[in-house]
Amino acid sequence: MTYEDLPSRAPVAPYDPTGPDRPGKIIALHLNYPSRIAQRGRTPEHPSYFVKPTTSVARSGEIERPRGTELLAFEGEIALVIGRAARGVDRADAWSHVAAVTAANDFGVYDLRWADKGSNLRSKGGDGFTPLGPAAIDARAVDPNALRIRSWVDGELAQDDTTAALVFPFEQLVADLSQLITLEAGDVILTGTPAGSSVVVPGQVVEVEVDAPDAPGAPSTGRLVTRVVQGDAVPGAFGAGPKVDDLQRSEAWGSAEAAGLEPAWRLTAERRERLASVATATLSAQLRKRGFDDTTIDGVHPLHPGETMIGQARTLRFIPARPDLFASHGGGYNAQKRAFDGLNPGDVLVIEARGEAGTGTVGDILALRARVRGAAGIVTDGGIRDIAAVAALGIPAYSKGAHPAVLGRRHVPWEVDVTVACGGAAVQPGDVIVGDGDGVLVIPPHLVDEVVDAAIMQEREEEYIAARVAEGEPIDGLYPMNAAWRARYEAAAEQGRETTDGQ
After folding, report:
1. For residue 327, what are the CA distances in angstroms to 331, 413, 414?
2. Mean pLDDT, residues 228-239 taken together
3. How far, in Å, CA of 184 to CA of 119, rounded?
Protein backbone atom coordinates (compact mmCIF):
# COMPACT_ATOMS: atom_id res chain seq x y z
CA MET A 1 0.00 0.00 0.00
CA THR A 2 1.08 3.62 -0.43
CA TYR A 3 0.49 6.63 1.79
CA GLU A 4 0.91 9.60 -0.53
CA ASP A 5 -2.02 8.90 -2.85
CA LEU A 6 -4.77 8.18 -0.34
CA PRO A 7 -7.74 8.26 -2.75
CA SER A 8 -6.23 5.43 -4.83
CA ARG A 9 -6.37 2.90 -2.02
CA ALA A 10 -8.94 0.12 -1.93
CA PRO A 11 -10.97 -0.28 1.29
CA VAL A 12 -8.78 -3.28 2.16
CA ALA A 13 -5.24 -3.74 0.87
CA PRO A 14 -2.35 -6.13 1.64
CA TYR A 15 -0.02 -4.88 4.34
CA ASP A 16 3.59 -6.06 4.66
CA PRO A 17 5.38 -4.48 7.66
CA THR A 18 8.66 -6.18 6.74
CA GLY A 19 8.67 -4.84 3.18
CA PRO A 20 7.26 -1.72 1.56
CA ASP A 21 5.05 -0.91 4.58
CA ARG A 22 7.85 -1.11 7.16
CA PRO A 23 7.13 1.53 9.85
CA GLY A 24 9.64 4.17 10.79
CA LYS A 25 8.65 3.93 14.45
CA ILE A 26 6.17 2.00 16.58
CA ILE A 27 4.55 3.70 19.55
CA ALA A 28 2.45 1.60 21.94
CA LEU A 29 -0.12 2.62 24.54
CA HIS A 30 -0.14 1.04 27.99
CA LEU A 31 -3.87 0.98 28.93
CA ASN A 32 -7.01 1.95 27.03
CA TYR A 33 -9.82 -0.65 27.13
CA PRO A 34 -12.07 -0.53 30.23
CA SER A 35 -12.05 -4.34 30.41
CA ARG A 36 -8.24 -4.41 30.66
CA ILE A 37 -8.21 -1.47 33.08
CA ALA A 38 -10.60 -3.40 35.32
CA GLN A 39 -8.12 -6.29 35.38
CA ARG A 40 -5.21 -4.04 36.23
CA GLY A 41 -7.18 -2.17 38.89
CA ARG A 42 -5.92 1.26 37.93
CA THR A 43 -7.42 3.89 35.62
CA PRO A 44 -4.91 6.15 33.85
CA GLU A 45 -5.50 9.88 33.91
CA HIS A 46 -3.66 10.44 30.62
CA PRO A 47 -2.33 8.22 27.82
CA SER A 48 1.13 6.80 28.50
CA TYR A 49 3.34 5.22 25.86
CA PHE A 50 6.41 3.17 25.14
CA VAL A 51 8.38 2.71 21.93
CA LYS A 52 9.09 -0.59 20.18
CA PRO A 53 11.98 -0.99 17.74
CA THR A 54 11.18 -1.51 14.06
CA THR A 55 13.17 -4.75 14.19
CA SER A 56 10.34 -6.17 16.31
CA VAL A 57 7.87 -6.13 13.38
CA ALA A 58 6.86 -9.34 11.67
CA ARG A 59 4.23 -10.79 9.39
CA SER A 60 2.19 -13.91 10.09
CA GLY A 61 4.70 -16.56 11.07
CA GLU A 62 6.56 -17.64 14.20
CA ILE A 63 7.69 -16.03 17.44
CA GLU A 64 10.40 -17.46 19.65
CA ARG A 65 9.90 -17.71 23.38
CA PRO A 66 13.35 -16.97 24.84
CA ARG A 67 15.03 -19.87 26.54
CA GLY A 68 14.66 -19.85 30.33
CA THR A 69 11.42 -17.84 30.33
CA GLU A 70 7.86 -18.94 31.10
CA LEU A 71 5.62 -15.88 30.71
CA LEU A 72 5.29 -15.03 27.01
CA ALA A 73 1.95 -13.23 26.70
CA PHE A 74 0.03 -12.10 23.62
CA GLU A 75 -1.96 -8.86 23.33
CA GLY A 76 -4.26 -8.46 20.35
CA GLU A 77 -4.45 -4.80 19.34
CA ILE A 78 -5.65 -2.40 16.68
CA ALA A 79 -2.74 -0.67 14.97
CA LEU A 80 -3.11 2.78 13.40
CA VAL A 81 -0.95 3.39 10.33
CA ILE A 82 -0.13 7.06 9.80
CA GLY A 83 -0.77 8.27 6.25
CA ARG A 84 0.66 11.79 6.26
CA ALA A 85 2.88 13.67 8.63
CA ALA A 86 1.23 14.97 11.80
CA ARG A 87 2.84 17.62 13.95
CA GLY A 88 0.81 19.71 16.40
CA VAL A 89 -2.59 18.62 15.03
CA ASP A 90 -5.80 18.90 17.04
CA ARG A 91 -8.36 16.19 17.69
CA ALA A 92 -10.75 17.41 15.01
CA ASP A 93 -8.10 16.90 12.30
CA ALA A 94 -6.26 13.93 13.78
CA TRP A 95 -8.12 11.07 12.09
CA SER A 96 -7.39 12.54 8.64
CA HIS A 97 -3.71 11.75 9.27
CA VAL A 98 -4.44 8.04 9.70
CA ALA A 99 -4.16 6.02 6.50
CA ALA A 100 -5.34 2.66 7.72
CA VAL A 101 -5.92 0.28 10.60
CA THR A 102 -4.52 -3.21 10.81
CA ALA A 103 -4.20 -6.06 13.30
CA ALA A 104 -1.29 -6.26 15.72
CA ASN A 105 -0.03 -8.60 18.41
CA ASP A 106 2.00 -6.85 21.09
CA PHE A 107 3.89 -9.83 22.51
CA GLY A 108 5.80 -9.48 25.79
CA VAL A 109 7.94 -11.61 28.10
CA TYR A 110 6.84 -10.83 31.64
CA ASP A 111 9.96 -12.56 33.00
CA LEU A 112 11.92 -9.47 31.87
CA ARG A 113 9.56 -6.71 33.02
CA TRP A 114 11.31 -6.28 36.36
CA ALA A 115 14.31 -4.68 34.64
CA ASP A 116 12.36 -2.49 32.20
CA LYS A 117 10.92 0.06 34.65
CA GLY A 118 8.14 0.84 32.17
CA SER A 119 10.21 1.10 28.99
CA ASN A 120 9.30 -2.47 27.97
CA LEU A 121 12.39 -2.70 25.73
CA ARG A 122 13.58 -6.01 27.16
CA SER A 123 10.13 -7.50 27.56
CA LYS A 124 8.51 -6.33 24.31
CA GLY A 125 11.29 -5.22 21.98
CA GLY A 126 12.55 -8.61 20.78
CA ASP A 127 12.77 -9.53 17.11
CA GLY A 128 9.37 -10.62 15.85
CA PHE A 129 7.53 -9.35 18.92
CA THR A 130 5.24 -7.01 16.91
CA PRO A 131 3.43 -9.00 14.21
CA LEU A 132 1.25 -6.77 11.99
CA GLY A 133 -1.21 -7.38 9.14
CA PRO A 134 -2.01 -9.27 6.99
CA ALA A 135 -4.20 -6.55 5.43
CA ALA A 136 -5.01 -2.94 6.21
CA ILE A 137 -8.42 -1.25 6.20
CA ASP A 138 -8.70 2.26 4.76
CA ALA A 139 -9.31 4.59 7.69
CA ARG A 140 -11.77 6.60 5.59
CA ALA A 141 -13.99 3.54 5.21
CA VAL A 142 -14.60 3.02 8.92
CA ASP A 143 -15.77 4.79 12.05
CA PRO A 144 -12.86 4.67 14.55
CA ASN A 145 -15.41 4.17 17.34
CA ALA A 146 -17.00 1.14 15.66
CA LEU A 147 -14.06 -1.24 15.19
CA ARG A 148 -13.81 -4.72 16.65
CA ILE A 149 -10.73 -6.57 17.89
CA ARG A 150 -10.72 -10.35 18.39
CA SER A 151 -8.01 -12.86 19.26
CA TRP A 152 -7.99 -16.65 19.26
CA VAL A 153 -5.63 -19.14 20.89
CA ASP A 154 -5.63 -22.55 19.23
CA GLY A 155 -8.95 -21.65 17.65
CA GLU A 156 -10.66 -20.64 20.92
CA LEU A 157 -11.85 -17.03 21.20
CA ALA A 158 -9.77 -15.27 23.88
CA GLN A 159 -10.42 -11.55 23.26
CA ASP A 160 -13.51 -9.85 21.86
CA ASP A 161 -14.04 -6.12 22.33
CA THR A 162 -14.85 -2.93 20.45
CA THR A 163 -13.62 0.64 20.34
CA ALA A 164 -16.98 2.07 21.45
CA ALA A 165 -15.90 2.88 25.01
CA LEU A 166 -12.16 3.47 24.88
CA VAL A 167 -10.76 5.68 27.62
CA PHE A 168 -8.55 7.39 25.01
CA PRO A 169 -10.16 7.52 21.54
CA PHE A 170 -7.87 7.11 18.55
CA GLU A 171 -8.03 10.74 17.47
CA GLN A 172 -6.89 11.77 20.95
CA LEU A 173 -3.85 9.49 20.69
CA VAL A 174 -2.82 10.93 17.33
CA ALA A 175 -3.31 14.51 18.51
CA ASP A 176 -1.52 13.89 21.80
CA LEU A 177 1.50 12.22 20.20
CA SER A 178 1.71 14.89 17.53
CA GLN A 179 2.28 17.49 20.24
CA LEU A 180 5.37 15.55 21.34
CA ILE A 181 6.89 14.24 18.13
CA THR A 182 6.34 14.30 14.41
CA LEU A 183 4.34 11.32 13.26
CA GLU A 184 5.50 10.33 9.79
CA ALA A 185 3.86 8.34 7.01
CA GLY A 186 4.09 4.65 7.82
CA ASP A 187 4.48 5.06 11.59
CA VAL A 188 2.37 2.68 13.66
CA ILE A 189 0.47 3.38 16.88
CA LEU A 190 -0.58 0.37 18.95
CA THR A 191 -3.74 1.36 20.78
CA GLY A 192 -3.96 -1.00 23.75
CA THR A 193 -5.37 -4.46 24.36
CA PRO A 194 -8.69 -5.55 25.91
CA ALA A 195 -9.13 -8.18 28.62
CA GLY A 196 -8.28 -11.74 27.66
CA SER A 197 -4.55 -11.38 27.08
CA SER A 198 -2.77 -14.36 28.57
CA VAL A 199 0.28 -16.63 28.47
CA VAL A 200 1.03 -18.85 25.48
CA VAL A 201 3.57 -21.64 25.21
CA PRO A 202 5.50 -23.27 22.37
CA GLY A 203 3.19 -25.13 20.03
CA GLN A 204 0.25 -22.76 20.50
CA VAL A 205 -1.10 -20.52 17.74
CA VAL A 206 -2.45 -17.00 18.28
CA GLU A 207 -4.64 -15.26 15.69
CA VAL A 208 -5.74 -11.61 15.73
CA GLU A 209 -8.31 -9.92 13.52
CA VAL A 210 -9.60 -6.36 13.27
CA ASP A 211 -12.83 -5.64 11.44
CA ALA A 212 -15.65 -3.12 11.13
CA PRO A 213 -18.75 -5.34 11.18
CA ASP A 214 -21.21 -2.45 10.75
CA ALA A 215 -19.36 -0.66 7.94
CA PRO A 216 -20.31 -1.24 4.29
CA GLY A 217 -18.85 -4.55 3.21
CA ALA A 218 -17.75 -5.33 6.79
CA PRO A 219 -14.05 -4.85 5.95
CA SER A 220 -11.55 -7.05 7.78
CA THR A 221 -7.79 -7.28 8.10
CA GLY A 222 -7.97 -11.04 7.96
CA ARG A 223 -6.28 -13.09 10.64
CA LEU A 224 -2.76 -12.33 11.75
CA VAL A 225 -1.36 -15.76 12.65
CA THR A 226 1.59 -16.37 14.98
CA ARG A 227 2.87 -19.76 16.08
CA VAL A 228 4.93 -19.89 19.28
CA VAL A 229 8.17 -21.85 19.10
CA GLN A 230 10.92 -22.43 21.63
CA GLY A 231 13.99 -20.29 21.07
CA ASP A 232 17.61 -21.11 21.87
CA ALA A 233 18.78 -17.64 22.89
CA VAL A 234 19.10 -17.01 26.62
CA PRO A 235 18.42 -13.34 27.57
CA GLY A 236 20.58 -11.67 30.16
CA ALA A 237 24.02 -13.07 29.34
CA PHE A 238 25.38 -9.51 29.57
CA GLY A 239 22.59 -7.84 31.54
CA ALA A 240 19.32 -8.51 33.30
CA GLY A 241 18.01 -12.03 32.94
CA PRO A 242 14.61 -13.61 33.55
CA LYS A 243 13.04 -13.23 36.97
CA VAL A 244 9.40 -13.82 37.90
CA ASP A 245 7.18 -13.49 40.93
CA ASP A 246 3.51 -14.03 41.63
CA LEU A 247 2.60 -10.48 40.56
CA GLN A 248 4.13 -10.99 37.13
CA ARG A 249 2.50 -14.40 36.82
CA SER A 250 -0.86 -12.95 37.77
CA GLU A 251 -0.60 -10.05 35.30
CA ALA A 252 0.74 -12.23 32.48
CA TRP A 253 -2.06 -14.76 32.81
CA GLY A 254 -4.71 -12.11 33.47
CA SER A 255 -5.56 -13.18 37.03
CA ALA A 256 -4.17 -15.08 39.98
CA GLU A 257 -6.66 -17.86 39.39
CA ALA A 258 -5.66 -18.28 35.74
CA ALA A 259 -2.02 -18.43 36.82
CA GLY A 260 -2.83 -21.23 39.27
CA LEU A 261 -2.01 -19.05 42.27
CA GLU A 262 -3.87 -18.74 45.52
CA PRO A 263 -6.47 -16.07 44.71
CA ALA A 264 -6.54 -12.81 46.57
CA TRP A 265 -9.30 -12.41 49.14
CA ARG A 266 -12.63 -11.97 47.38
CA LEU A 267 -16.10 -11.06 48.49
CA THR A 268 -17.75 -14.19 47.16
CA ALA A 269 -21.48 -14.72 46.70
CA GLU A 270 -21.48 -16.89 49.82
CA ARG A 271 -19.80 -14.17 51.88
CA ARG A 272 -22.29 -11.60 50.57
CA GLU A 273 -25.18 -13.83 51.56
CA ARG A 274 -23.82 -14.34 55.07
CA LEU A 275 -23.20 -10.61 55.51
CA ALA A 276 -26.73 -9.88 54.35
CA SER A 277 -28.11 -12.21 57.02
CA VAL A 278 -26.92 -10.02 59.92
CA ALA A 279 -27.42 -6.39 60.85
CA THR A 280 -24.70 -3.76 60.85
CA ALA A 281 -25.41 -3.24 64.55
CA THR A 282 -24.40 -6.83 65.25
CA LEU A 283 -21.34 -6.63 63.00
CA SER A 284 -20.34 -3.41 64.74
CA ALA A 285 -20.57 -5.06 68.15
CA GLN A 286 -18.31 -7.89 67.00
CA LEU A 287 -15.78 -5.49 65.54
CA ARG A 288 -15.72 -3.56 68.81
CA LYS A 289 -14.96 -6.77 70.72
CA ARG A 290 -11.87 -7.05 68.51
CA GLY A 291 -10.71 -3.51 69.21
CA PHE A 292 -12.15 -1.90 66.05
CA ASP A 293 -14.16 1.01 67.46
CA ASP A 294 -13.94 3.45 64.53
CA THR A 295 -15.40 1.49 61.63
CA THR A 296 -18.71 3.32 61.18
CA ILE A 297 -19.07 5.97 58.47
CA ASP A 298 -20.90 8.56 60.57
CA GLY A 299 -23.45 11.14 59.48
CA VAL A 300 -24.60 9.43 56.28
CA HIS A 301 -28.14 8.27 55.59
CA PRO A 302 -29.59 5.85 53.02
CA LEU A 303 -31.31 7.24 49.97
CA HIS A 304 -33.74 4.31 50.06
CA PRO A 305 -34.93 3.42 53.59
CA GLY A 306 -34.63 -0.26 54.34
CA GLU A 307 -32.06 -1.00 51.66
CA THR A 308 -28.97 -3.15 52.19
CA MET A 309 -25.62 -2.47 50.53
CA ILE A 310 -22.71 -4.91 50.48
CA GLY A 311 -19.55 -4.59 48.40
CA GLN A 312 -15.83 -3.93 48.31
CA ALA A 313 -14.55 -0.39 48.47
CA ARG A 314 -13.16 1.66 45.64
CA THR A 315 -12.26 5.17 46.74
CA LEU A 316 -12.33 8.76 45.51
CA ARG A 317 -10.76 11.66 47.35
CA PHE A 318 -11.70 15.33 47.06
CA ILE A 319 -9.59 18.16 48.44
CA PRO A 320 -10.86 21.64 49.36
CA ALA A 321 -11.65 23.90 46.42
CA ARG A 322 -8.93 26.22 45.15
CA PRO A 323 -9.17 27.96 41.77
CA ASP A 324 -5.75 27.01 40.43
CA LEU A 325 -6.06 23.40 41.54
CA PHE A 326 -9.54 23.08 40.09
CA ALA A 327 -8.22 24.50 36.83
CA SER A 328 -5.52 21.82 36.70
CA HIS A 329 -7.50 18.86 38.10
CA GLY A 330 -11.19 19.65 37.83
CA GLY A 331 -11.73 19.47 34.09
CA GLY A 332 -11.31 16.80 31.45
CA TYR A 333 -11.06 13.16 32.46
CA ASN A 334 -10.66 14.05 36.11
CA ALA A 335 -10.40 11.77 39.14
CA GLN A 336 -14.16 11.79 39.69
CA LYS A 337 -14.87 10.54 36.16
CA ARG A 338 -12.08 7.98 36.35
CA ALA A 339 -13.47 6.67 39.62
CA PHE A 340 -16.93 6.05 38.20
CA ASP A 341 -15.61 4.65 34.91
CA GLY A 342 -13.37 2.25 36.82
CA LEU A 343 -16.10 0.65 38.92
CA ASN A 344 -16.65 -3.08 38.58
CA PRO A 345 -19.64 -5.24 39.52
CA GLY A 346 -19.96 -5.43 43.29
CA ASP A 347 -17.85 -2.35 44.03
CA VAL A 348 -18.95 0.36 46.47
CA LEU A 349 -17.51 3.79 45.68
CA VAL A 350 -16.57 5.56 48.92
CA ILE A 351 -16.05 9.31 48.50
CA GLU A 352 -14.06 11.44 50.91
CA ALA A 353 -15.74 14.85 50.96
CA ARG A 354 -14.50 15.90 54.43
CA GLY A 355 -18.10 15.99 55.73
CA GLU A 356 -18.80 19.01 53.51
CA ALA A 357 -22.53 18.84 52.74
CA GLY A 358 -22.67 22.26 51.06
CA THR A 359 -22.36 20.90 47.53
CA GLY A 360 -23.02 17.77 45.52
CA THR A 361 -20.37 15.09 45.09
CA VAL A 362 -22.35 12.87 42.69
CA GLY A 363 -25.27 13.53 40.39
CA ASP A 364 -27.64 11.51 38.23
CA ILE A 365 -25.28 10.93 35.27
CA LEU A 366 -22.44 9.59 37.39
CA ALA A 367 -24.84 7.53 39.48
CA LEU A 368 -26.21 6.06 36.26
CA ARG A 369 -22.68 5.20 35.20
CA ALA A 370 -22.15 3.40 38.52
CA ARG A 371 -25.35 1.42 38.05
CA VAL A 372 -24.47 0.49 34.46
CA ARG A 373 -21.05 -0.68 35.64
CA GLY A 374 -22.77 -2.97 38.17
CA ALA A 375 -21.62 -1.14 41.29
CA ALA A 376 -23.17 -2.21 44.59
CA GLY A 377 -23.52 1.33 45.91
CA ILE A 378 -22.13 4.79 46.62
CA VAL A 379 -21.16 6.31 49.98
CA THR A 380 -20.22 9.97 50.36
CA ASP A 381 -19.86 12.11 53.46
CA GLY A 382 -20.91 15.01 51.24
CA GLY A 383 -24.09 15.85 49.34
CA ILE A 384 -25.91 14.37 46.34
CA ARG A 385 -27.20 16.50 43.47
CA ASP A 386 -30.25 15.56 41.37
CA ILE A 387 -31.29 13.45 44.34
CA ALA A 388 -34.72 12.51 42.99
CA ALA A 389 -33.17 11.25 39.74
CA VAL A 390 -30.46 9.39 41.64
CA ALA A 391 -33.09 7.79 43.87
CA ALA A 392 -35.07 6.68 40.81
CA LEU A 393 -32.03 4.76 39.53
CA GLY A 394 -32.35 2.35 42.44
CA ILE A 395 -28.64 2.13 43.21
CA PRO A 396 -27.94 2.09 46.97
CA ALA A 397 -26.53 5.46 48.05
CA TYR A 398 -25.63 6.94 51.42
CA SER A 399 -24.90 10.65 51.90
CA LYS A 400 -25.34 13.64 54.19
CA GLY A 401 -28.33 14.74 52.11
CA ALA A 402 -29.29 16.68 49.02
CA HIS A 403 -27.62 19.81 47.74
CA PRO A 404 -28.05 21.53 44.36
CA ALA A 405 -24.56 23.07 44.00
CA VAL A 406 -21.95 21.70 41.62
CA LEU A 407 -18.74 20.01 42.72
CA GLY A 408 -16.41 22.98 42.20
CA ARG A 409 -18.13 25.06 44.88
CA ARG A 410 -16.31 23.15 47.62
CA HIS A 411 -14.16 20.40 46.09
CA VAL A 412 -11.39 19.49 43.67
CA PRO A 413 -11.44 15.85 42.47
CA TRP A 414 -7.96 14.69 43.41
CA GLU A 415 -7.18 10.97 43.37
CA VAL A 416 -8.69 7.50 43.20
CA ASP A 417 -8.10 4.16 44.90
CA VAL A 418 -6.14 5.51 47.85
CA THR A 419 -6.85 5.30 51.57
CA VAL A 420 -9.50 7.89 52.40
CA ALA A 421 -11.35 9.22 55.44
CA CYS A 422 -15.13 9.15 55.06
CA GLY A 423 -17.46 10.05 57.89
CA GLY A 424 -14.65 9.64 60.41
CA ALA A 425 -13.68 6.14 59.25
CA ALA A 426 -10.52 5.11 57.42
CA VAL A 427 -11.37 3.23 54.22
CA GLN A 428 -8.91 1.37 52.03
CA PRO A 429 -9.58 -0.01 48.56
CA GLY A 430 -10.79 -3.58 49.01
CA ASP A 431 -12.35 -3.05 52.44
CA VAL A 432 -15.80 -4.57 52.79
CA ILE A 433 -18.59 -1.99 53.04
CA VAL A 434 -21.92 -2.98 54.58
CA GLY A 435 -24.87 -0.62 54.85
CA ASP A 436 -28.43 -0.89 56.16
CA GLY A 437 -30.94 1.35 57.93
CA ASP A 438 -28.58 1.84 60.88
CA GLY A 439 -25.72 3.16 58.76
CA VAL A 440 -22.55 2.07 56.99
CA LEU A 441 -19.78 -0.10 58.36
CA VAL A 442 -16.21 -0.72 57.15
CA ILE A 443 -14.79 -4.23 57.70
CA PRO A 444 -11.17 -5.12 56.94
CA PRO A 445 -11.28 -8.18 54.63
CA HIS A 446 -9.17 -10.38 56.90
CA LEU A 447 -11.78 -10.02 59.66
CA VAL A 448 -14.90 -10.67 57.59
CA ASP A 449 -15.28 -14.43 58.09
CA GLU A 450 -14.49 -14.29 61.80
CA VAL A 451 -16.80 -11.34 62.43
CA VAL A 452 -19.70 -12.76 60.41
CA ASP A 453 -19.50 -16.13 62.15
CA ALA A 454 -19.62 -14.40 65.53
CA ALA A 455 -22.41 -12.05 64.41
CA ILE A 456 -24.58 -14.93 63.23
CA MET A 457 -24.09 -16.65 66.58
CA GLN A 458 -24.85 -13.42 68.42
CA GLU A 459 -28.09 -12.88 66.52
CA ARG A 460 -29.23 -16.43 67.24
CA GLU A 461 -28.64 -15.78 70.94
CA GLU A 462 -30.49 -12.47 70.77
CA GLU A 463 -33.43 -14.12 69.03
CA TYR A 464 -33.62 -16.59 71.92
CA ILE A 465 -33.39 -13.76 74.46
CA ALA A 466 -36.08 -11.74 72.67
CA ALA A 467 -38.39 -14.75 72.69
CA ARG A 468 -37.92 -15.19 76.42
CA VAL A 469 -38.54 -11.49 77.09
CA ALA A 470 -41.72 -11.75 75.03
CA GLU A 471 -42.78 -14.60 77.30
CA GLY A 472 -42.41 -12.31 80.31
CA GLU A 473 -38.92 -13.15 81.59
CA PRO A 474 -37.05 -10.28 83.30
CA ILE A 475 -33.95 -8.81 81.68
CA ASP A 476 -31.65 -9.27 84.67
CA GLY A 477 -29.55 -12.37 84.17
CA LEU A 478 -31.00 -12.98 80.73
CA TYR A 479 -29.41 -10.11 78.82
CA PRO A 480 -26.56 -10.77 78.87
CA MET A 481 -27.08 -14.41 79.77
CA ASN A 482 -25.72 -15.61 83.09
CA ALA A 483 -24.49 -19.18 83.54
CA ALA A 484 -27.96 -20.58 84.17
CA TRP A 485 -29.52 -18.96 81.14
CA ARG A 486 -26.49 -19.89 79.03
CA ALA A 487 -26.96 -23.56 79.95
CA ARG A 488 -30.66 -23.39 79.05
CA TYR A 489 -29.88 -21.70 75.74
CA GLU A 490 -27.25 -24.26 74.79
CA ALA A 491 -29.58 -27.11 75.65
CA ALA A 492 -32.31 -25.57 73.49
CA ALA A 493 -29.81 -25.04 70.65
CA GLU A 494 -28.66 -28.67 70.87
CA GLN A 495 -32.23 -29.89 70.81
CA GLY A 496 -32.85 -27.75 67.73
CA ARG A 497 -29.85 -29.27 65.99
CA GLU A 498 -31.02 -32.78 66.83
CA THR A 499 -34.47 -32.01 65.47
CA THR A 500 -32.97 -30.64 62.27
CA ASP A 501 -30.64 -33.61 61.84
CA GLY A 502 -33.51 -36.02 62.28
CA GLN A 503 -35.61 -34.54 59.52
Report:
1. 7, 11, 12
2. 89
3. 22
